[in-house]
Every structure is written in structure tokens, then in C-alpha cells.
Amino acid sequence: MPKGIPKSGHRRRRGGQPGNANAVQHGYYRAAKIESIGDILADMQRKQELLSGFVEKAMTEENTEDILRLLQLYGQNASRLGRLLRDQRALSGEAVNGLAEAFAKALDELSTTWGVEL
Fold first, then answer.
1. Residue 53, domain extent
2. Is the pTM of this model over 0.90?
3. Among 28, 37, 69, 76, which residue is least crowded by beta carbons within 10 Å?
4. What domain count does the chain have?
5. Could you please report the per-residue DSSP string of 37-76?
């Protein structure tokens, strides 16, 4: 019998066979737990603190390649963390309130400095 045809005479399909739930249970199609942006931020901040400790330790060992890799990773994580914090503020509406407060404060300072009501 040719290769790929079992003794029963039926040809097997490529990939998962009917009734096989491995991909659903273990792989890409497994239902992902949706986390809040706050959970993601807390995890990123924890990782940033861990990276900071690794950087400090690497600085004492004087291994330039490891220090450079750690600093690159630290910078990437800090950048992602900053974007997530900005996005969280935008989604919560805090960004608009913060901007309005900054304008009001700037106008108050200019009003005091120039002696005019703005």
C-alpha cells in the first residue's frame, strides 16, 4: 500500500484529524484570558524592576556584551511601559483632564506674570 494510506484504505488528511482537539487545548486556538491594561502594566513594571536588578548586577561583573543586551532590553521594556501608561491615561480620560489642568495652570502663571486677566 502507498505511504500515507492506512490499512483501512482511507487516506489521512494533512494536519489535525477529525475529533483531534490538541490545537484547541494546547496551541494557538486556546481561548486566551483577556487581561485588563492595569494587569499588563503591573506585569511590565514588575519586569522592569527585575531588569533593573539584572543591570545593576551586570555592571559589577564588567561584562560589556551582557550589559549592552540588558540595557537594550531595559530600554525596550521602558518604551513599551511608557506607551501603555499613555494609552491607559487616554482610555480613562485622564489625558484630557491632565491637559486641561496644564493649560489652566499655564494661563494662571502667565496672567500673574503679565498682570492681566487671561
1. 36-114
2. no
3. 28
4. 1
5. HHHHHHHHHHHHHHHHHHHHHHHHHT-HHHHHHHHHHHHH
